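Subgroup meeting minutes
Present: P.N., E.W., G.H.
Scribe: E.W.

1. P.N. recapped why we're keeping a running log of single-chain structure predictions: easier to compare across weeks, and new members can see raw inputs and outputs side by side.
2. G.H. added today's entry (195 aa).
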Amino acid sequence: MESGSSFQDKKEKVLGGKKGRPSWSLILLVVVAIALGGIAYWLVQGKTGANPKVSSQPKVSDKVDYSGQTVRMTDVQAKVENGKIMIPVHVVKEKKIVRFEYEGKGLKIPLLAYLTMAGRVVTAISMCEPCKSTRFHIKDKSMVCNACYTEWNLETLKGISGGCMNYPPEVIPNTLEKDSIVIDEKVVLDWKPRV
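Output recorded in log:
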């Protein structure tokens, strides 16, 4: 009889006790893992809504349909006067995405302006900071880096795919004055790369 009970003792040690009842620590571990997974997903995905920096940009045209199109960036000249960087609205409406440079105070900073599908003109620092590219194009409903091919949603600049998804061109505010898109020179001078 004694050998039977020692067999039962060994079996319980190996199997961890009685059959059929999961341990509370295992259940707690699974719940914590699911909770941490959910929090990690939320942090990685970020907000799904509109980017307030993009949605606050001025509307200059009706809706724009980029479906099935690839629009290359066009270089334009900006005018700097009285602390304002200016480019003509009609050029952005015609070309859809333009690149220009701010040169002043010993700096050369690449900038861009583009039309969203909602007809807003967005101005931003023209740089994919991790890969250092300063050129982009529009493809369908995305802004695409010409170097690493990271894609961002054109309306929100939320990352879609690629290695630099968390670093879209950084939006800077603009206003409309007469027929010009105007950027405050101080905002550009104060800009610092995120990486």
